[in-house]
Design brief:
The complex is a heterodimer of chains A (386) and B (519). Chain A has 386 residues and is mostly helical. Chain A contains 23 helices and two strands. Chain A has a two-stranded antiparallel ribbon with strand order 1-2. In chain A, a hairpin with a 2-residue loop joins strand 1 and strand 2. Chain A is elongated. The relative contact order of chain A is 0.05. The N terminus of chain A is likely disordered. Chain B folds into three domains: 82 residues, 2-Layer Sandwich (Phosphorylase Kinase, domain 1), CATH 3.30.200; 247 residues, Transferase(Phosphotransferase), domain 1, CATH 1.10.510; 45 residues. In chain B, helix 5 runs antiparallel to helix 9, helix 6 packs across helix 16 and helix 15 crosses helix 16. The longest helix of chain B is centred in the C-terminal third of the chain and has 38 residues. The radius of gyration of chain B is 23 Å and the shape is globular. The chains are: A mainly alpha (386), B alpha+beta (519). At the A-B interface, helix 2, helix 5, helix 8, helix 14 and helix 17 of A face helix 1 and strand 4 of B.
Chain lengths: 386, 519
Amino acid sequence: MVSVVVVAVGRRHGASASPVVIQRLSSPSSAAAPPENDGEAELKRMKSLFKSKPKTPVDLVRQTRDLLIYAERNAPDTREVKREDKMLELSKLLRELKSILYGNSETEPVSEACAQLTQEFFRENTMRLLIVCLPKLNLEARKDATQVVANLQRQAVHSRLIACDYLEKNLDLMDILVLGYENTDMALHYGAMLRECIRHQSVARYVLESEHVKKFFDYIQLPNFDVAADAAATFKELMTRHKSTVAEFLTKNYDWFFAEYNSKLLESTNYITRRQAIKLLGDMLLDRSNSGVMTRYVSSRDNLRILMNLLRESSKSIQVEAFHVFKLFAANQNKPPDIVSILLANRSKLLRLFADFKIDKEDEQFESDKAQVVREIAALEPQDHP
Amino acid sequence: MAQPTEQAPKRTTYPLDPTSYKIVDEIGRGVSAIVYKAICIPVSSTVVAIKAIDLDKSRTDLDSVRREAKTMSLLSHPNVLRAHCSFMVESRLWVVMPFMSGGSLQSVMGCSYPNGLPEQCIAVVLKEILHALCYLHGQGHLHRDIKAGNILIDSNGSVKLADFGVSASIYESNYGQGSSARRPMLTDLAGTPYWMAPEVIHSHSGYSFKADIWSFGITALELAHGRPPLSHLPPSKSLLMKMTKRFRFSDYEKTKTSENKKFSKAFRDMVGLCLDQDPSKRPCAEKLLKHSFFKNCKGTDFLVKNVLQGLSSVEQRFRGYKLQRLASMNRSTDDDEEDDEGYSFTKQRRISGWNFNEDDFELDPVFPTNKDEDTDILKQVRFGGETVFRNRGGDSLTSSSSSPGKTIDTQLGDQKVKVGSEMGNNSGGGEAEIGGGLQRAEAVGSLLILKKSLDVQRQNVRNLIVLLGGGESLEVSREEQLMQVIDGLKVELEREQKKRFELEMELEFLKLQLSSPSE
């Protein structure tokens, strides 16, 4: 029992000084042994602790990197058996990295260990290797790798996100991640990594300004629901997270962006695409930082026509979201003449529509918005075209 | 846990268009989803189950639908139901899954084991589910809705955990915001009330994997009795009971042994561990697998011989269920809102439990007493005041079943008392509990729930009085009367809407059948 105490103290010291010794996870095979009482189990665990060489987070990252280099260089058919062993070892290492970062069912993550891991990970090109080799890993290892990469984006070392520094020097990695949506097997993994990476504003700006941003209009409509929905989530993140960057992007790219947005998304034949697109449009236009873009959007008769069509949809969810954009057209105090004339031409239809327009749960804001829209439309006066 | 399917063979790709599937029959239905049995023609006419979720009617936001789809396509374990693929058909999301011909264990019990499965079968099922939990928890996933209705069984005896509608990834929650690397915890309320862990109900304090262990324990009781504990109470009341009567599960051991010879000590001990009020004291899934209860556990083929034999098909059961539901529509109850997807026909058991209870209530109204309430409730919750499962032909129930002759008389008695004592309990017992140094927020939370439950009870009492024709004698103010009328109308309206909706669904389903390429 004395030795047990020593171990515990030793580990604690390790945590305060540099390298932290991480206790290897007890392997499930030994854990699955015949039931034993707790004392015995504890003793066994301690014994195995002495036997197995403790590894520091830095060791683990280095070994992972070595194996990744091996995996990258060797095609699947080279010396099958040896390769399989190494890939298995790689999977184990990734799982260990994950449990350092997230903790496991018995232990909480240690911030010092996380910091060391993060530093070593970004000191060299481990992230690139991991992304490039991801397709060569099995499903479980892919998931672990994705969670590791995702977590590292938020790890601060000396209150600095070093992941961001790394990515700024390796922005081309984002191209791989975005194009991942074209591969059904990789899409969800690369997609999850991508969403974490674009939490960094500079990285999001790169993706927005890259040619790839156009591809999202297609990715969102992929037939595989899980992939399409993931792409939609990433697109939404891109278009809403970093306000100033988004405003700048939309201002610069207004013409092509909304032309595509209207024709490909809002007028899509796909229910879920229309529903997600109209919701996102509302989120974007109602954001204060996009007020310039909003003013421009609600001055276009083409846009109004599309919105009015969405208002007539049989789907309640789409109708409601469309209303939140339509109200901006009606509330605009400087309506261009052609907008006024369209609203006038459809006045009675619109008023009738709003008279029966209810949502399931009571919502004061909605009701007051509706009342205002109705007032605006009712008060419209025919204008002479200049 | 080693990953048993790490080197899984290359997945067959299932087509992403509805015309490749021929719908055979409807096998389940919830508020916004229908489950079909179908044949995938291009993939050698494989039988599949298709869950069609109407996203326009579903109240869940798209983000959680996305997460469910993602979870289901990334999980890979023999005890976890995985989606072959998913795609949109108009406003419906079709999730194509393997067809599990035995259906959910809840429907199996409803059909042939109304009072619960034999212990040996329970062991097999629970062991399989623990494997699934080990895997899920290792992946950072909480299932959050473990119950017999979400456990499916196939013709070969394989058991899978299904329905990730409310599952959550601990890694996707907002961890580490602010203070470094705290362990992620979830705080939102999810699941089905009867199976929910106390810390999930007090969700502001956060919960994690151990909440699944609690639900696992409740599921064990459900399998043993045919229904979860407290299921004769409406969901909100069951929540309240659990909160105010903390001791109920924790002193589980004491009263147990004397009155229950039906179940083995190992089983009772295992369940007791799962139902510890303190989440940190509950064992993790991996540890539970090593419990002596699972030591000499049979293989899944045992289920084929003992549970599946002579069982009617999922389709037949669903048809029977629909008929039954039509018949009971008029006496509809204020049952919970949960939508039963993933071929669980949850309401069948629950409603019948209710009806039974209501009859009981009607026959023999009991008024608040200060009887030794706790023990009565105890019996009920535990291994069920002698709910004896029938000794089915051929089942040798081994040593654990020493008194197969007992009838359910005692249980009847218990329930009567229960209703009454529980009333006394709520009015009196609640305060004492709250006084005991709880935090303000927690107290407010419990009070709110208490209030809600009191409202429900008031309504029940009122109904009862009306039912007994004693309405007039009660001095109610005009205002209150009007409120009653309004409430009544509201309920009626809701009922009508529900009926209409169901008829619409029926119509749609018929249309769909007509338009399907067959026939």
